[in-house]
Recover the amino acids of this structure.
């Protein structure tokens, strides 16, 4: 936790906050903070700065706030992810958030098992929690937008044109004839398929929608590895 992220519910005064639970335990056990010490804090959706500890015990942490720094700018990217396996979903959502992606779409695909959509990890509370963890890691305060596209074709026809408007569109696809570009400026819509890959009909649909198939090299990567590799390559 590189940023103590606050919500409006934590505020007991305009310049004071009280925290309990996970964040209290982290400050006590990991930061080993003490009264008078300053912590890096931020208000969800708002500014960041410092919080001076005024109370710290087994019941609560209280801090006096000085928030004067805007959050880091987002990457103007829309990330379309074929829904990953539940085992890796949390890591992928937290990682995408840490990387600064502005919008995440979890999409269906032929090789996405139907059971994935019913996983407890798809619960709204968990998806929010993973994005919070990503913000805490990256010292950010602004959540990425998150959309669920349970049906591939309606998403392609009804939602994708709006989401991808005025952006360059890339489709990560092993064996594509063009290598992945580097250091792109401006809005980007990036589609990453399931670990079994996009089927040919999906590749054709995305290409018809303006997506450029690009290749990352000879190795077949897992979703979270492909995401990190693409971000490192494409970020300006």
């Amino acid at each position: 936790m590189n940023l103590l992220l606050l919500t409006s519910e934590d505020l007991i005064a305009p310049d004071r906050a009280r925290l309990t639970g996970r964040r209290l335990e982290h400050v006590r056990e990991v930061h080993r903070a003490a009264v008078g010490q300053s912590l890096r804090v931020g208000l969800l959706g708002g500014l960041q700065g410092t919080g001076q500890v005024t109370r710290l015990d087994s019941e609560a942490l209280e801090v006096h706030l000085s928030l004067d720094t805007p959050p880091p700018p987002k990457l103007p990217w829309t990330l379309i992810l074929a829904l990953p396996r539940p085992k890796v979903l949390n890591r992928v959502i937290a990682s995408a958030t840490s990387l600064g992606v502005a919008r995440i779409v979890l999409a269906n695909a032929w090789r996405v098992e139907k059971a994935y959509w019913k996983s407890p990890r798809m619960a709204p509370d968990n998806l929010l929690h993973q994005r919070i963890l990503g913000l805490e890691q990256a010292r950010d305060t602004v959540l990425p937008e998150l959309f669920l596209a349970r049906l591939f074709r309606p998403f392609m026809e009804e939602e994708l044109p709006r989401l991808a408007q005025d952006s360059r569109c890339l489709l990560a696809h092993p064996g594509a004839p063009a290598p992945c570009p580097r250091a792109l400026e401006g809005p980007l819509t990036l589609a990453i398929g399931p670990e079994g890959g996009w089927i040919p009909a999906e590749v054709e649909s995305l290409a018809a929608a303006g997506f450029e198939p690009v290749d990352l090299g000879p190795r077949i990567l897992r979703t979270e590895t492909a995401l990190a590799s693409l971000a490192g390559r494409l970020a300006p």
About this structure: The two ends are 26 Å apart (CA to CA). Residues 75-234 form a domain with the Alpha/beta knot fold (CATH 3.40.1280.10). The chain has a mean pLDDT of 96.
